[in-house]
Amino acid sequence: MKVLKFGGSSVAKPENIIKIKNIISKYNDPIVLVVSALGGVTDLLLEAGSLASTQDQSYKNILSTLEERHLSTIKALLPVTAQSKVLSKVKSEFNVLETLLEGAYFIGEITPKLSDKIVSYGELLSSYIISEYLISEKLDAEFKDSRELIITHKLNGKNVVNFNKTNTNCVDFFKSSDKKITVCPGFIATSEEGVSTTLGRGGSDYTAAIYAAAIDADILEIWTDVSGMYTANPKMVKQAKAIPHISYEEAMELSHFGAKVLYPPTIQPVLSKGISIVIKNTFSPEEAGTLITKSKNEKGKTVRGISHIGNIALLSLEGSGMVGIPGISKRFFEVLSQADISVVLITQASSEHSICVGISADDVDKAVSIVNEAFEYEIERGRIKQVIPEKDLAIVALVGDNMKSHQGLSGKMFSTLGKNNVNIRVIAQGASERNISCIIDEKDVKKALNALHEEFFEENIKQLNLFVMGVGNVGAKFLEQIKEQRKFLKENLKLNIRVIGMSNSRTMLFDEKGIDLNDWSTKLTAGQKADKSKFLELVNSLNFRNSIFVDNTASEEVSNTYNEYLGNSISVVTCNKIACSSAYENYSHLKSLARTYNAPFLFETNVGAGLPIIDTLKHLIASGDKILKIQAVLSGSLNFVFNNFNDKTTFHDVVKQAQEEGYTEPDPKIDLSGVDVMRKILILARESGNQLEISDITNNPFLPEESLNTANNDEFFASLIQHEAHFQSLFTSAKNADSKLKYVAQFDDGKASVGLQEIPKGHDFYNLEGSDNIVLFYTERYPNQPMIIKGAGAGAAVTASGIFADIIRIGNF
Ligand code: ADP
Ligand code: ASP
Ligand code: MG
Asked: Which one of 5, 447, 462, 680 is the catalytic residue?
C-alpha cells in the first residue's frame, strides 16, 4: 500500500483536483489518499472563529464565501446527476458550522475545543468532496473519516496521538477494506472522549505519516506545490534547487527550522519503520522530487539546506543569582512548557549567567508575563533581571549530516553574514552538530539566505547588485561594457553582475530582478522622477547583498551621500573626484566607514581614468614599500593643449578646439588653472599615506592673472587672445631649450605642487602623446628608475573600463 498526501494548494481549485485524479489513476497499488483543506480554508475558518468570538458579525461573510467556494467546487467537478446528494450534504455541514460560530458569537468566546471543531470542517469537506468526485470518475474509491481512526489523548496538557489505539484502528480498518482508494481528511483526529481534535498547523503531513507507519506502507508521498525539499525556501531564494536525496534527520532538522514543506513531527512515525518519504510536485509530477530515507548522503556533502523561521522573539533570563544554582533553567523551561510555548532555539553562556531562548513572537507577551511572575522572588531580590523580549527576529540554520566532520563551516557562515552587514544576535549549534543556527534581524532574512545560499551552493557564483547614478557619456559606456561582458564574467570569474537601479538627473528606474540592459534608455525615460534621497532609500530598503553604488556624475551633492551608502554596507565606486579631494577629514571618514562596514570605497578613475594608478599605489604600500616622490602628467586636457600649441597656432584656438572636442571641462578654466590636477595629486599624496589638504598644494599658474580672474567663458577666451604674446613666449622659451611644455604635478618630500614645466629631450614626459597621462613612482624599492604607468588618461570608454575594474575588484573582495 502507498500513502499519498495532497496539500492545500494541490486541492485549492477544481482544476488542481483533476490533476490529482490523473496522478493517482496511474497507480496500481491500493492507496490511502490524505488531503488537506482547500488552500486557505483553515486560515479563514480560524479567522471566522476569532471574529465571532469578538462578536464581529463579519464572520458571516467568511462563512458564505467558504460555502460558495465548496459548492462551486462540487459543481465544477461532479456531473449534474451526481451533484445533488453532495451539495445537500455540504450545505447541511455548513448549517452545523454556522451554529458553532453563532455559539462563539453569542458567548463572545472561543475555547480550544470549539476552535478545533470549527477548523476540522476544512478537511472534512475537502476529503468528502474529493472522494465523491473520484467515485463519479469511476475510480474504486471510498471516504473514511480520520476521526474514526486517529485517536489523541492529553499529555502535559497537549493532544498527542495514542499510537496503540490508532494503529489498531488503522490495521483493522484497512485490512477489512477492499477499496483501491481510501480518501481521508488530514489534520483531524478524535480525543478519547470522542471530541474532534487537530494535529497542529500543517498536520495533514502527520496524518499521512501515521497511516503509513500503522499499515507498513511501501512509501509515503507528500504532494505539494514545489518539486521537493529545496536547498532553501524557493520563495525566498530564486537559485534554490530541489535536494534529490536526504536523510530523515536532515529533513527533520530542516523542517524544524522552517522548511514548511514537511511538518516536523511527520518523520517520527515513518522513521522507526524505515518507510521512505518522497516529496513531489502536483503541478510537475514528472519531476523526481526529494527522496527521504535512512541512508546517509554518501557523497559526503556537508551543508544540505538552509532554512529559516521568521516571527521570532528572543527571551533572555539573566542575572548573577543564576550562577551555580541548580534548577533555574528547569523552572524556566517548565514555565514555558506549561503555557504551551514551544522553544525553537536555546543557548546558554558558559558562565551560567544567562539562558537565551528563541520563541514564536506570537507567544512573547504571554511568555514575558509568566516568566517574570514565576521568578518574582528572585527578581525582587535582584538575583535575576526582569526578562525583556527582543522582537522582529528570525532564525537562520544551516543543516547537514556531515557538517560535524568538517571544520570551518561556522566560520564561513558567520563571515558571509558579517560581510553582508547582517548582525548576528545569538548563535547555537545543535549537539548533533547537524545544524548551526543563528538569530538575526527579520529585515535581513532574505539577504542572509541568499548570501548563504550563494556561499554554500552556487558554485561560488557571486551576485553583484549595482545602483548606477549618472548615465551620460561615461555611465552609458559603462552599461554597454557590462552588457557585453556579463556572460564572460559569469562563466570565467563567477560574477553575476546585475544593474538594479539607475538614475540620471531627470528620471530613475528600479527593477529588483535586474534591468534589461538592451533597452534601459527607453525604460529610464519612462521611469519615476529622479530623487537622490529616494534613490538611497530604495537601495537601502531592497537590502541586497553585495550592493554597489556607482557614481558617474561630477556632482558634489551626490558625493555627499557616500557616507550614507557606506554606513549601510553598500560599496561605493566613483569617478567623481569631489569626495576624495574634499577636506581630509571627510576623505578619511569615508575610508574608515568602508573598513567598519566591510564595504569597499573605490575611485581608481579619479586619477588617470582607466589606468591602474591608485591600485598600484595601494599594492606598493601594502607590500611595505614607501613612496619617495611622485611626478606625473595627469591632465589629458592640458596635455592635448600643449601638444597642439606652437608658433603656427594661437593658444586661444587650441584651447577652443580642446573644448569643442570634449577634452576639457565645459569650463576650460578648471583645467587650465590647474585645479583638476591639484585634486589628482592630492588624492595620490593621500593614498600614499599623507595627511594633506588642497590648500597645502602649491599652484604655479601659467595663466596671466587677468585670465584667471575672468568671470565666464567669453571673458576667458577674450583674455587668451589678448595675452597671446605671453603664451608664445612660453613656447619659444621651451623650444630654445630643446624642450616641450608639460603640465606637471609633483609630490616630493611631503610637498605637492603643480605647474607648467619645460621638459627636455630624453625625459620620460617628453614624448607624451595626445591626451595621455603618465605617472612616475619613485619608491624605496624603485629609487632611481621609477615605476612608470602610462596610457590614455581621459575619455568615456577608458573611464568606464576603470569603473568596471573597480566593480570586479569588489567582486573578488
Ligand atoms: P502544502 O499546502 O502542500 O502542505 P506547504 O505550504 O505547507 O504546502 O509547504 C510547501 C511550501 O513550503 C513551499 O511552497 C515553500 O514555500 C515552503 N518551503 C519552505 N522551505 C522550503 C524548502 N526548503 N523546500 C521546499 N519548500 C519550502
Ligand atoms: N489545513 C491544515 C493547515 O492549513 C493542515 C494542513 O494543511 O496540513 O494547517
Ligand atoms: Mg504543509
From this structure: 680
